Q: What sequence folds into this?
């Protein structure tokens, strides 16, 4: 079966590898873009939280105050 290996066979394999490489790089670029989008969303949320805590002067010692019983979530028994 493998009595002869021609330069055409080698070129065909090279083209196949090049095609697979290009497909892999495209998938990689797509995944990186998705991760960058997620990172940007997280950064935006982080900035909003920081602004909120500055605006309302919340520090590390801040605590949650229940305003009234109707607004408090039901406690699990």
A:
């Amino acid at each position: 079966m493998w009595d002869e290996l021609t330069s055409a066979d080698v070129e065909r394999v090279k083209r196949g590898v090049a095609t697979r490489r290009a497909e892999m790089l495209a998938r990689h670029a797509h995944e990186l873009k998705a991760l960058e989008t997620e990172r940007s969303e997280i950064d935006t949320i982080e900035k909003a939280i920081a602004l909120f805590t500055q605006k309302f002067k919340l520090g590390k010692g801040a605590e949650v105050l229940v305003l009234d019983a109707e607004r408090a979530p039901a406690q699990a028994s």
Q: What stands out?
A: The longest helix spans residues 7-55.
